[in-house]
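Lab meeting, item 3. Inverse folding demo.
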């Protein structure tokens, strides 16, 4: 299944590029990529900032990299780059680059659940207390729908216009544990 990895953020609250921080024996972003691929997501269309792209050394054939040279325009600017690289008429999922705790088995489970949703539903997402987690899975129609997204909340705003097409699944903490600040990083790495 095609996957979009949005990983071009500026890490302003962190003060350093959080995706390149150590996570076990590799970096945060390498962990996320490995978990996605191990969970059956391929090809992965990863949109990076120039600095992250330059730091990612391994470039297997299933990893397609797009560069967002103006990430300050918001997450939707990275989404637009990824959508241009995404084949038409194929389902896909979207993952964020700062969720290294979402493991392969969790991704496999969600992918399998998505494959069996009713035809009148177009989105499958982990959810907890009404908050959507990642990765989120979409039918191909969403490529066109997301093309009007703007800013950091553009995709989410569009999604809310199709609430009746969304199926949610209660999900563990890993789908919501992102890294935004130095304290987040220290606390998450201690728990790992």
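The presenter then showed the designed sequence:
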């Amino acid at each position: 299944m095609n996957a979009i990895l949005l990983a071009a953020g500026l890490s302003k609250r962190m003060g350093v590029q959080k995706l390149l921080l150590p996570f076990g024996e590799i970096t945060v972003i390498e962990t996320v990529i490995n978990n996605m691929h191990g969970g059956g997501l391929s090809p992965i269309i990863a949109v990076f900032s120039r600095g992250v792209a330059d730091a990612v050394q391994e470039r297997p054939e299933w990893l397609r990299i797009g560069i967002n040279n103006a990430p300050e325009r918001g997450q939707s600017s990275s989404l637009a780059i990824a959508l241009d690289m995404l084949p038409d008429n194929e389902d896909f999922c979207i993952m964020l680059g700062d969720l290294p705790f979402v493991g392969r088995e969790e991704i496999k489970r969600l992918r399998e659940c998505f494959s069996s949703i009713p035809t009148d539903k177009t989105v499958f997402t982990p959810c907890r207390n009404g908050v959507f987690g990642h990765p989120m899975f979409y039918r191909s129609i969403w490529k066109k729908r997301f093309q009007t997204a703007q800013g950091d909340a553009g995709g989410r705003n569009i999604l809310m216009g199709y609430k009746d097409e969304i199926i949610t699944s209660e999900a563990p903490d890993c789908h919501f544990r992102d890294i935004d600040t130095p304290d987040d990083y220290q606390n998450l790495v201690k728990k790992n």
